[in-house]
Structures are given as structure tokens and as C-alpha cells.
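== Item description ==
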Amino acid sequence: MMRIRNLIILSILFFVFQVSGKNFPDFWFEHITIADGLSQNYITDIKQDKDRLIWIGTKNGLNKYDGYEMTIYNHIQNDSTSIPNNYISYIYQDSKDNLWIGTNTGLCKYIPEKNCFEQFNFGTTDSPHSNYNISSLFEDKNNILWIGTEEGCLISFDLNTEGVKIYRASQGIKAIEQDKSSLLIGGRNKGIMHFDPIEEAFYQTAIDSTFNSETVTTIATDPKGDFWIGTQSHGIYLYGKNLNKLSGQTILDIHFYKDSFALLGTEEDGLACYNIDTDEFQYINNTHENVNLNSEGITSLYIDTTQTIWIGTINGGINKFDPNRNRFVHLSLSPKYNTPSTIHCVFALETLDNKSILAGLNTKGVYSLNSKTYEIDNTAINRIAPQLSETTINTILKDSRGLLWLGTYKKSLIISGPRNLTEPIKKLIKKSLSPSSSIKYLYEDSQCRIWIGTDNSGLFCYDPKLHTLPGNTKELKKYIYPDLITSVIEDDNHQLWVATNCGLYLYDPEEDSFTRNFLANQEQPYSLANTIIPICPIQDTLWLGTRQGLIKYSHKEQKHRIFQVEDGLPSESIKGLLYDEPNNKLWISTDRGLSCLNLSSYQFINFGLKDGIVGTEFNDMSFEKGTDGTFFFGCVDGIYCFRPDQIKMNPYAPGVIITHYRLYDDSPQNKTNGDISRIPVPSNKEITIPFKQSIFSIDFIALNYTNTPKNQYAYKLENYDNNWHYVGTQHMATYTNLNPGTYLFRVKASNNDGVWNEKGASLKITILPPWWRTTWAYFIYTIIIGGIIFISIRIYTNRLKIQNQLNREQFERAQLEKLNQLKSQFFSNITHEFRTPLTLIISPLEAISNTKGRVSLRENYLTTIKNNAYKLLDLVNRLLDFSKVESGCFTFNPINIDIISSIKHGVAYFQPLAGEKNITLIFHADKENFVCSIDPNIIEKILYNLISNAIKYTPENGTVEVCVTLEKGNLLSLSVKDTGKGIPVNKQKLIFDRFYQLEGDIPNGTGIGLSLVKSLVELHHGSIDMESEVNKGTIFTIHIPYKDATTNETIIIPTSEKNNQPNKEKDRAYLTKMLNEQDIQETNSSSPTILIAEDNHDLREFIKSILNNKYNVIEAENGAIALDIARKDSPDIIISDILMPEMDGKQLCVQIKQDIQTCHIPFIMITALSSETDQIEGLTVGADDYITKPFNPEILKTKIKNVLKSRELISRRYATLSALEPEEFVTEDKDATFLLEIIEFIKANVSNPDLKVDDLSKNAGMSRSPFFKKLKNLTGKTPNDFIRDIRLNQAAKLLLKSDLNITEIAYQTGFTSPKYFRECFKKQFGESPSQYIENQKSLPGK
């Protein structure tokens, strides 16, 4: 890479040196003076440090330059951290990157961490405070810094140990270099000498002695290792060789470039360049007109890392030659002192020959420009066309025959050349073109035809072979208006393209016509995107410049791509295009400067004011490529020219440093100050910022000294920014109110040509928290919070203890209440269980006492009494068993017994009960007989409860299966399986709790059965398991241990009957016999119908037996069946129990009273629930009466009789409604409302003789039969009689209130015969219609 850089710089310098005497302004210096911040213009030394900062020594201060600003360091009295003196004599950077500053009163070292200096005092015992005038510095290969002074001292300073030794020389030391194992020293007045560090002695060689009369100013070592000696007044010497050049010149500095060039700074003749290979000198000074070196006294030379040459001068400051800076030459074409009237706007450029270029100007005709010397001839127009000296020239063309064509603004076309050639053409022009036409563009194609584009007259073509000048506007006019032709060009395939203000056109030579080939904006043909100015064909691609960007157009593929400002263009108004074929780049002129497009990467590089292009606005079609490859672009004030191969990309990525940070105080006291400090960034690249100053800025720079203002920057604050901020040329970042924490600020930069240093620089930033967020604050907070938590925990613990105690008490209270509720429910259920048998004992006794002579009936009643007495006894025994188990008094008495037979007989006992519900009861045992020692009483009670529950909860046609197996370990396994409704999973754990009953269970029962079973199983040292699945059934399995039968005990074999319980099958036969033998009186169809809803079969049969002689009785075993019967048969009265399965009595009553078909039916409740609350609740839901068990049959008969009688009175009341208007009767009673709606319907249709019962039932929303019964029950009349009564009542009103005669009224009220009407009327009112009228009118008040 370094070799490539060196070759680039060498070629540039060689070109500079070769042409500088030929008035070619390629060598151009930038000046840095006190106007730019330098402390003084007398430069003593220049160096670049490790950070690429430029250090400049002057006679009045030290300067640090970063490309943007100059930092000046001066001596401060009594400040040891400042420089010793303002006279800077020497600057040197050692191998450890330390920067040493020599002054005329001592030496110091720069401390970048503190941005200050460390002074060194090399005094001796004889002179402890000696201050030396430092004249030279040099580090040898042993890390010894050698210091030469004007006083003749050579000081050895060990960079590792800081050891100091001072040696006295015979002359002031001006220069030091390494010569093998010794030092080569140049001095004042006595020339050259050596110093041996080992012997610590000065000596002279024979060669040294030849310089005894010289004052050596500098020594430099070339790449070959030869020493070049610069002297005062005798030029330069090559040490040890017979070479002396520039004798008489004072050489102040020597710098080598590559192997062939030595740059020499002279005291009076500027910069000299010596070509070692050719032994030639070239001076660069003000003797050359276009060299802008501002001082010819060169004191120091330095080439930095980007090969920029820094030249320190006497009183001229810094002269900087930057080979990376692009050199655009501006030719203003105007006198030295311009005024607005002398600005030369160039519209056209055309190459005349190898040396001359013609420029067409605005209102100034044509100038001639020497393309080699850039000399301007403004008299060219006088030789070409004197009449155009004050004319605007739009376009110029020199054709292949040597004729010169000039297109003007409103002065038509001018041609210059031999008369014999031009005169015929002029005639054609005069004939075809208007004298005031404006010519926009001229072009000669490969067939030597001249194409003439005009401003508003279309396109013309001069054919020299045919000598014709036809206009081709006929085809174009249908596309173009006005006829504006901007340019014409022929590509490599000899296709002719025409650019216009509305697209691109292609010429067809066979048809001699044009077709539109491309239009960027199809919707708006005259948009700026379709105004094409220049065309540049490159291979098969056309590059089109428009008013809205640059277009790459592939006419074969009919594809295009538009480049605009967002793609990198400086402007979208394209003026001219020139192709740099060797570098494959397209140069573009715009109204905002030049741009170069790399056709390989499609990246733009823009050049404007910062690149020396002062007039950035260029003109349409004003461009030309010279014969030597120089590009010319015409602008509003002259011409810019350059060689494309000299416009190089700056390849050096800049160094990036963060220089300072600024802290701001936004408190009210500092609103006016704002920026309170600008602090250098420490060397460790870490800064800490107080919380109250968390508004801060960071300054950073890119160390690129080539066109520094074009450096680009991007920054990012990690832990805060998600993306990079690309901020252009801004080199400062500001952040406000950051949260406390640690951040990493990163910045990267590019040079003037967009080459980025991606690594960049970074700075660690710590924002301190406020005092209330410091470690100590958090420690205190922790203690406080810990104390609060501790106290809170104590309080919480105490409260929790109290709360737990309260919860425990509440839980115990709730459990107690729950137990009380369960007990209440238990006692309520057991009361019900007691009351039902008692009812069937007491009520038959009452019936017996009232029965005379009917022996069979009394016997049946006695059987019922006996059965229910046994049932009551069974309930009492179960309660006693439960009480014994609870109190621990139930004894375990095992005996020898055939357990299989015992269980089998127990199962057989339940066969009749299972048969009533068509339930299949199955028994299985793995043995026929098995005698063991076991408690049969416990087994019997367990079996009784499990089988009775299974039958109770198994629906009709279900199955109950009892299995007995003998398992290992003397275990008896007894399982009872049913196909009932099952038990939900979440309720299975509660099923063995005492008094617990599932929601929706059959209401009779005590809730102690399974609890008793579990207790009995555990009493027998066994276990019980349950498996259940909803709607599939339940299996209870018990495992009870047994002992083998002992031989000395009696073995009990169960018999078929038990002495302590009734034989239910026998009793059931008695009951059936009783029912069959009852002396039931025949009832006729006119007897009232009573529906009995009772789940207890015996009680239901008893009630039926006492009512059967006077009423038609219908039975239902639960509320759901009763509801269906009531809706179907509409009974006269309903008697219902409350606690029933599927639907209880209360739900049944609600359904009956809410249904319009049944709401009239009286409802009597008979129940064991005798509390006042239960009675009130029963009456509230709509019951007409409430009877508690046990009851007196005569009371029941009497209440039924009274209810029916009350219903008859209500029917009479309803019958009177037929005489009322519906609006005269207001009621909320459903039956009254029902009747009023029927009456209103009949009155609305009273004149309809075909009104029938079906019409009324349909209007009421009921079927015929229920409607008939309901209306008969409410009114005591059939529907037809009811209709006739309404008709007659309406007729009676009409007889009194209308003027109609009797016949008309008969027909009006729906009677088809007046005779039949009179008969019905007389039957209803006891008199004929005419008599009715007379009698009513004769009444008082009528």
C-alpha cells in the first residue's frame, strides 16, 4: 500500500515540477496563517504525533492543529506545567510516542493525559539552574535521547531510566544523526564532528575536517543511508562524496521523498526539488506566475501520513501542498477585476484544433481558449463573424469539412468558412429558417449530415451530398409542442437519438421519420422528468440528463433506472455528461456543482464550493472533451477544466479522536452562561459526569487534512442509541438528561471522499447518580426499608395470628353452623320419614273409627297400620344404631355363621322392592356356603343400607349386582354395583360424611346411611372403597376380615324369615288384596277429578281409598308426571306432597299456576314439613291450602269439598263477566284475564254466525279439549252456551240503545233466524224482546 501511495505522490510531484514553468497551475498551496489561528507566522518546526495531530513550532508559542482549530500553548510565569519558553526551536517524537518540545530556554515533554507539559532541568553542580537553548533532538537505537544545544552541550537522556549526562562540545550543536556506533554532529562554525557514546569523547575524521569552516544547519539521511549536509551559504553536501549543490544558498531543512527526490527548504529561494537520478533542480517559488507559495523562506519540511507536504516558512505561516486535493482550474474569461457586467456566462464549447477551444458566451459572441496555456483570445469572433460580437451563442460545431457552424439566440444559424462552400448553405438556411429563430443544438453524424435543433421550429437536417435542408417536423409535431430540440447524438450502432422537452426519439433512416422511444413519466408527457438535455451513449446504454435526475436507459431491454438526490446526486437538474472511459466514470454537471458517478459501484462523489468550484451552476449542453483528455464544463462565470486522471480518491481513512467534552448547567442561575466548561478528554478515554450536569456535548474530529470541511461523521451512544446517527460534517454530539449509568460513546468518520474509518474512537461515560441514588444512600435506604419490613413483618405476623385465630373461630363457627344445618336437615328429613308412617297409622285409625260395618276395609287399614308401624320401628332402629356407633357403644360380637347364605337371604329380601321398579337384582358368590366367625348383625346392616341405596338411585329397568368373594388374608369382599346416576368426582369425598346428601337427591332419607356403613365397616376392622361415574353407576366394595369358625361354637344357618322384621312381600299382598276388595262406589263422569301427586305408594293408595267413592282419582308418583297429567286431563283439583323426586310439590305448584291452561286448578299441599316458614312458602308459590302430616281424612275431605264449592262460586262470578265490557273490569287474576280476552274476542266477532269453539281455542292458544274444560270449570257453561250468552247480552244492549228493529239486531248479533233469536232471548231473560224493551223503558230513571 505504501508503495502505491508513493507512486501516486511521485507522479503528481513529477507532473508539477515538469509543468510549473509552463504556466500550468497544477501546483497549488493552502495557507495556514495567524488568520487561521496560528500564534505566529514564523514557523520553526513541524511534526505529526501518534494521533495524527500536527504540532507547529513558532517563535511565539506552540500550536496544535487538528484540521479545524488551532490550540496554542504559551509559557506561563511560575507554571511548571507550561512550556519553558514561547520560542519553539525543535519538536521530536521518540519511539515511545512521547512528544518532546525544545525551546530556547529548555526542554519539556507533553503529557496528553493532563494536556500539560513536564519541564526538564539539566543543571549541574556548577550551574544547577542552567537553561539550555535546545537546537536539536535525536534518539539512538539504545533509547537514548540526545539533546543538542546552542551553548555547545550534548546531553544524554536515558528514556528508560531518565539518567542524564552532559558533554561539552567546542561549538553549538545544530544537528544530530546516527552514524553506525557513533553520532554525527553538525555544529555552528566548525562543521562536522563525531561523538563516541562508549568513549564519551568528541572526535573528527578526515572527512569531518573538510567542513571546518562551515555552519551546518541540518543533517538528513536518505534511503540509501547517505548523509546530506545542509549549510549556511554553501548549499548542500553529500557526506563522504564529492557533491556540492546550490552553493551560495542557505539550506534550512532537507526531506527525502522516495529514492530519487530531495526536497530542500532554502532561506530565500523557496522550495527546491533535486532529482538525484538526473542531477536536475527545479525551483518552486514566486518566480513562476501560477505558484502561490506565500514566502520564499522555507524553515521546515514535513510529509505526513497522507503524503501531504507541510512547509514552514519565514513569516508566511504554513504552506500545505495536498496531493490528495482535487485540482479544478477555473477560467473566468474576464479581466482581473470583475464587475457584475463583466461576468462571462459560457453556453457552448467546441474543440477547434489541438490547441484551441471555442467558447460561446451570453451576449459576448465567441472567445478562443488555448487548451495548453489557458490564454484567452476575446477577438476570435471578429475573425469568424464580426456581426455576432454582442450575440448570444447557444451552440458551436466544427464539421468534418472544416466549416464552423454557430447557433445563436434569435439570430438564426451562422456558418463560417470558404465562400464557395458556405454561400450555397447560407441560401438554404435563409430559405428554411426564420432570421429570428433560435438554434439550440448542432450535431454532425457519421454520414456528415448536420442536424439542427431549434427552440421552437423543430429539427432540420443538412445533407451535403444532396445539398438539401429539409425540416423533419411533420412526424415530431404530433409529439412535441413547442418544437424544442435540446440535443442530438449518434451511438456506436449509428442510431440517431433526439432529446426533446417531452421524451427521447429514435430516427428511422429507411422511413426518414422519428418515433418516440422513451418517456419517463407516461401520465404527464411535459413533466420535468421527460425534459431530456444531454445524452451520453456508453455501449448499449444511454445515459439521459433530465430536470428530475439522471436516467440509465437500456433501449434494447426497455428498462431504465433513475438516480436522484437521495441516491447521491447534488441536484436533479442535469446540465452535461462526459464519459471518462479509462476510469469507467461518468462526469455530470448540474446547477449545484460537479458530480462523478462510478459506473461500477454506482457511487457518486460530488464537488462543489469546498473543492474550489466557486461558481457551482453549470449551463445546459456546455461541455467538451479536449484532444489531450482534459474535460471542460461551461458555467455561469467562465469555464472549469481538469484532467480526470488527476482527480483521485483520497484513499486514506482518517484518524478519529475525541478531543473535548462540554458540560452545561441548566439551572436558573446559569441560563445565560450555558456552556460552563470545555474539558479535554483524558488519555484513558473515560469521563465521569455529575448528575446535575447530565446535559453535555462531545467534540470529535477526523484527522484528515485534505479538504477537512468535507469530513463526514457518525456517532452512537451504546446503552442509549439503537442506531448510528449520521450527522454529515457536524463534529459534535449533544445528549440531555441521561439516566445515571455507564455508556460507551462511539464515533467514526470519513475523509473528504467518503472513505470511512469504521473503527473510529470511543469514550466511556459514567453519569453519576444523584446523592439519593448513591451507594451510601441505598445502604441507608436498605437499613430503613429493612427496619420497616421488620416492623411490618412483626405487625403482619401479629395480625396474621389474630386473623388466623379469627379465621379458626369463624371456621369452627361455620362448621358448627354447617353441622347445625345438617342436623336441622337431618331432623327435617327424619321428621318427614316419621310423619309419613305416622300418617298411615293415624289416618287409617281415624278412618276405622268413622267406618261402620265394612270389615274388609278395616282389615286393610289395619294391614297398612301394621306395615308402617314396622317401617317406623326400622327407622328408630337405624337411629339407635347410628347413635351407638357415634357414642362408641356398638359392640362387635362375632359368631360362627354361614356368611354366604346370610348375605344371599338378605339380598332376596329386596327382590320385591326391586321388582316394583323393574330392577334386576343379581347375587354372585364364589362359594355356595362358607362358615366363618364374623358379626352377622354388622354385615346385615351394611348390606341393608347399600342395597336399599342402590335400588333407590337406580332408574327403572336398571340392574343392581351383589358380589361376595373370599380373598387371601381372611378377607371377605362384598361389592354392591348399580347402574344409577352416579356420584360426581368432586362430591365423592363427602359422600361418607354424616347427614350429607347430594344436591338433587330424592328428598326422603336421613343422610346417615353411608356414614353408618363406613362406621360399621371400620368397627369390623375393614375398609370401604367406592368407584363411581356419572350416568353410568356406582360400585361400593367393602373388605371385612373374618376368623375361621371355631368348633366349640354353634353354627347359625339363616332361615327364610326374620322374626324382628315384617315380611314385606306378604304385607304387599295384603295391601293389594285390600285395594282389590274395597267397596268402591261407582262414580259417574260428572264427578270431579282429583289428581294425587305423592311418591309414597302406601300413602297415595290410602288417599285414593278415602276419595275414590266420590271423585274420579288420578295418581302420579312425582311432580313431573303430575304436571303432564294436569296439562292433559285438566283435573278439578290437585293434591300434592312437597318432597318428591324429579320435581317437588313447590315446583309443581309454580308450573301449574303459571300455565294459562292449568292456572285455574285448585292446589292443596299435603306434607310432613309443618313449620310456619314451610307453610308460608307453600302458600306463597300459589297453593290454595296446606295440610300437614299426619292428617285427619275427614278434614281432607272437607277441605276438598270447600275448595270445589269455592271454585263453583268463582265460576258464577266469571259468568257475570260476560255482561261487562272488558275495559270495565280491571284485574291481575290470570283466569279473569283469560275470560276477558275471550269475551272481547266474541264481541269483536259477534255478528259472525259461524263463530265456533275452535276459533276461541285458537285465539287463546290452546287445544280444543283443555280449552273446553277450562272454560267449563271457570263459567260452568260449555263454550257454545257461553258464546250464545254473549250474543244475547249484546242484543239486549242494542235493543235499548240503538234504533235497529229486532230482526236487524238478531242478524247484527250473529243469529241466522229471528225466530230462533226470540226463543233464545225469552229463555235467557224470561220475556220476548219487545216486552223487554217496554219493561226496561218503564223502569224509573230510564
